[in-house]
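## retry 2 of 3
previous attempt timed out at serialization; input unchanged, resubmitting
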Amino acid sequence: MMAPARALAAVLLATSLNALAQTPLPALVQADGALNPAWRFVGFPKAKADIPFTRFEAGRIDGVPAVQVVTASSYGTLVQDWSGPPPARLQWRWRLDAPLSGGQRAPDILTKAGDDAALKVCVMFDHALDRVPFVERTVLRIARSVSGESLPAATVCYVWDSTHPALTQGPNPYTRRVRFISLQGVGAPIARWVTESRDLAADFATLFADELTAGAAAPRITRVLIGADSDNTASTSSGWVADLRWGNSVP
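## retry succeeded, writing output
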């Protein structure tokens, strides 16, 4: 039988972890209609200061409070530093009003030249460095040192892509530390809300299967972000994101 002190400690630890897992994501848009300052803007480091910022503005469309995301040869993200084990699901709504267009190159998320996304929702994980291949681990350590940022060892991105079929997935062409699933693909509805609900742990296990041991739990989350970029193709796009939250079941 477990000693009373140990039993109490176990209960308190389980309760604490459960409470942390249930900590909600801050709303993207406040009750007063303003962009929530709990979400901070992050652009490229100073080395790429000449690249314009993607624009994020709070607004309403079809009566829904949402964040409008507009690109013009730009890059940018809204980041929330959320820490904890992956909740059951990540849920949100998004709509793309104007796909990437008018650029110098055609968008193609599978290539460096075309690696842009009109909308994306990403989750960063505290993935164990000893699971990362040696060369990539070395590059990551150098990047962390140069940038002064705690760059994640693993990021899962959900993207809205108008070039490839839905559910196309793979590594980012610049770094395998970021891997993506295109939830909306060629032929997806334009200017209409689409609801998403994803099992984060399952998607992490699928995308990073080559770096996981059988049955291993998904690592802790460190950040959640929304974003868009069109700097590689010098194109423009416009879309919206709303109701980003943790969920416990499929809606």
